[in-house]
Amino acid sequence: MRPVQIVIDAQDTQRLAGFWAGALADRGYRLPTPPDGAPDWPSWLRAQGVPEEEWGAGFALDNDDETQPRVFLQRVPEAKTAKNRVHLDLQAGGGQRVPLAEQEQRVAAAVERLTALGATHVESRTELGTHWAVLRDPEGNEFCA
User: Fold this and answer.
1) Is 133 in contact with 89 (CB distance < 8 Å)?
2) Where are the beta strands (DSSP E) in 84-129?
């Protein structure tokens, strides 16, 4: 059992799982492989008798480090309409212990990587010696890098 599970609402769980697996790859997260040697998820789900309309109802990312939180994407019918009340902070800059110029370089590199994965850069900020960027994932969920 993981210490914490982070749940992200999504309309397309598989697409968003691919984004977050890439965004969190440097922390050991990855897309899960189908069990029982199945060649792909549709084959495995079909063999389990799961109706196609239920495929993608939920999608968890794998991480071998059991001290890391589980990341679970759950399908919801509605699109995102308001600002997140909770968000992920990837802490790409390293915080105040890192010189500001280096924080800016780290954050810029993270923004470049994340936008290549499908994120949208909203803004970059520096306050109290810490530099970060605000982004949105492909479904509009805000997060920081």
Assistant:
1) no
2) 120-127
Whole-number Å distance between alpha carbons of 77 and 116: 27
pTM of this prediction? 0.89
Q: d(Cα 144, Cα 37) in Å, to the nearest integer? A: 37
Torsion angle in degrees (nearest 10) through CA of 27, 28, 33, 35: -120
Per-domain residue ranges for the chain? Answer: 5-75, 100-144
In whole angstroms, give the CA distance from residue 108 to residue 132: 9
Give the pLDDT means over successive 10-residue stretches in the chain (145 positions): 87 94 96 93 94 92 93 93 90 96 98 98 96 97 96
